[in-house]
Amino acid sequence: MGEMDGLTVTECTKCPDLVACRSQIVNGVGPADADILFVGEGPGAQEDEQGEPFVGRSGTVLSDTLRDVGLEREIVRITNCVRCRPPDNRNPRKEELANCREYLEKEIDRVDPELIVTLGKVPSEHLLGRSVAVTSEAGSLVDKAIAGKPRRILISVHPAATLYDRSQTDTFVETLTKAAEFTTDTGGQKRLGDF
Ligand code: URA
Q1: 182 Cα–ligand 1 center, Å
Q2: Per the CB 3.0–4.6 Å rule, which of 10, 123, 156, 167 could disulfide with 39?
Q3: Domain-by-domain residue ranges, the chain?
Q4: Tens-digit pLDDT profile for residues 84-100
């Protein structure tokens, strides 16, 4: 295992099935001090090829929606529950999620975000530690301790859900609007404190 700076994993062979299929480890992107951390499930084919989370079709939906709600992709941090592509785009297995958990927790610690947005069922359940009905719970803010520190989590549908079911688009936009408002509020408080 090679891990530097709390953010970047340079080598890891904990998950044999993933190691056999991956092109590379896909680390998170975005500022190390971002206010918002988006957490997806795991890299897909495009992400595995380019070495960056959310650069395929889901990534286009995410970037476009971020822009629409006034949050540029460049100012948020984006990562995944697992950093290596599961073969055939299957969901990451329990043990794979567990193997990668320490990297995610270190990233959360290092970034220390005001808000974590979980994109879809897998990251929502992984971080909340319970089953989550994302479609009905999307937009909910939940406080949860992660690695011993209280964190605020906003549950979201996965951006890919909007591609299969157009009715999910409104839910996704509303949730990201809430994320944008949340940080605007925080920024307002910070500015007041500056005076
Ligand atoms: N879906 C995810 O959950 N993560 C990615 O990085 C890309 C697609």
Answers
A1: 23
A2: 123
A3: 30-182
A4: 999 998 999 999 999 99
Ligand 1 site residues (CB inside 6 A) read 40-44, 47, 53-54, 56, 58, 80
CATH number for domain 30-182, candidates 3.20.20.60, 3.40.470.10, 3.30.70.20, 1.20.1250.20: 3.40.470.10
Q: What is the rounded distance in angstroms from the CA atom of residue 65 to the CA atom of residue 118? A: 15
Cα 159 to Cα 80: distance, rounded to the nearest angstrom: 13
Whether the predicted pLDDT of 191 surpasses 70: no
Q: How far apart are CA 155 and CA 178, in angstroms?
A: 11
Q: How remote is the CA of residue 119 from the centroid of ligand 1, in Å?
A: 9
